[in-house]
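Private note to self, pasted from the team thread so I don't lose it. Backbone tokens:
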């Protein structure tokens, strides 16, 4: 039975999208947050997902400081603090390291055509040890029926992780909504990281590069696929920003089935993951 009243604890892009889906379905939604602000997807080229006014005035989502009454479901997300410092870094002329989030740091640098801070990330771009530091704070909520911003387990490599990329939390929100409404949902997690600049797009899926590796060149894009025994473990992709919609579509398909690469076809023929997976992983199956 679909819920009639839901409490979402924490406000960010994922919880905002879930609130939107629930309100469109006629569900009453309360959002408990210590930081009511517009839910941002990321730094450019991403835009705010919704404005606070739209959620409050158009959708009639209630923002509360204390919980009252009973709820059919409680969803844990997180409050995001000090993201304004990250946005402010876009007006500067120095590389910036967002402490603990090297992929977001890479996006900031790539967008401004600057070297990437040389910390915890391996991208084929110019790097520098001279950079400013800013910090984003996440206040996670725990103990609810569902989670958008807590600990996930990667289905390929088995590692525990916290989703840092905002789009992954948005995808998780769609999963939660589907589960609440009795719809089909992937039911598993794959760690997603990405960095987007003015003319470059980098993305990675999975815990870490492990297993045998193959590289596939497809026009002006490249795919590195890691795996063992016919199963994927990690994918690294580099291309142009216009490749991002295709990559995220393949990512969501991979969250549903390990054999996602078999379905990577378009009107122009085989896609990048199809070529990379089949050529590399099928060697293990030929015996």
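Design output:
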């Amino acid at each position: 039975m679909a819920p009639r009243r839901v409490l979402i604890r924490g406000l960010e892009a994922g919880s905002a999208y879930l609130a939107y889906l629930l309100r469109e379905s006629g569900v009453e939604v309360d959002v408990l947050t210590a930081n009511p602000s517009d839910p941002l997807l990321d730094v450019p080229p991403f835009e705010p997902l919704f404005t606070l006014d739209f959620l409050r005035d158009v959708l009639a989502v209630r923002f509360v400081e204390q919980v009252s009454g009973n709820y059919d479901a409680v969803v844990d997300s997180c409050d995001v603090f000090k993201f304004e410092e990250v946005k402010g870094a876009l007006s500067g002329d120095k590389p910036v390291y967002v402490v603990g989030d090297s992929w977001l740091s890479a996006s900031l640098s790539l967008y401004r055509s600057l070297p990437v801070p040389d910390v915890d990330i391996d991208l084929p771009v110019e790097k520098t040890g001279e950079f400013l530091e800013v910090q984003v704070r996440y206040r996670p909520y725990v103990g609810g029926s569902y989670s958008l911003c807590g600990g996930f387990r990667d289905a390929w490599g088995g590692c525990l992780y916290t989703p840092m990329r905002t789009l992954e939390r948005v995808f998780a929100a769609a999963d939660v909504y589907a589960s609440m409404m009795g719809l089909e949902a992937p039911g598993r997690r794959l760690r997603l990281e990405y960095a987007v600049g003015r003319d470059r797009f980098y993305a990675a899926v999975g815990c870490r590069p492990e297993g045998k590796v193959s590289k596939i060149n497809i026009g002006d894009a490249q795919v590195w696929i890691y795996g063992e025994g016919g199963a994927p473990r990690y994918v690294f992709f580099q291309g142009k920003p216009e490749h991002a919609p295709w990559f995220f579509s393949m990512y969501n398909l991979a969250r549903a089935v390990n054999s996602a690469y078999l379905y990577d076809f378009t009107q122009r023929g085989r896609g990048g993951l199809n070529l990379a997976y089949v050529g590399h992983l099928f060697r293990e199956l030929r015996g």
